[in-house]
Amino acid sequence: MADKQIIPPKHDLDAKWDACLDLTVRRFVYSSSAGAFADLLFFGSPVTRWTSIAFGAGVGIGSAYTECSRLFDGPPTKLPLHNVSETASQLRRLRSELRMSKKRLGTEAKLVKLQATFDKQMTKQPNFN
């Protein structure tokens, strides 16, 4: 007998491809069947029949693709979830900063208007020097 190298299941691509093809075909058929059944229950025209079957097939292929990408690449990295209270406090802080900046802008606009009025008055009056 020839010595066979035993490939660990983590690196066995043939088994992964077999599992992905099997999963894709099963989900395609089951989702298309579910779309056809939903069409019989809810819809009646041939256009909606094909649309619901195509939608079911797309859902099946999409879910199989997601599962196969996890199988080949491993589980996706988990993104950190934000704490709701932390996010709410940040939102309150940003709102208060916005209010303060609006007040400052209002004050600055008044100052600019006063400066323009002052400059206008100064240009009207003659210089006595």
Automatic annotation (TrEMBL):
Q: Does the keyword Mitochondrion apply?
A: yes
From which organism does this entry originate?
A: Sphenostylis stenocarpa
Which Pfam family would be a valid example here? DUF543
| Protein's name in the database | MICOS complex subunit MIC10
Where are the coiled-coil regions? Answer: none
Compartments annotated for it: namely: Mitochondrion inner membrane
Task: State the family it belongs to.
Answer: Belongs to the MICOS complex subunit Mic10 family.
UniProt superkingdom: Eukaryota
The organism's lineage is: Eukaryota, Viridiplantae, Streptophyta, Embryophyta, Tracheophyta
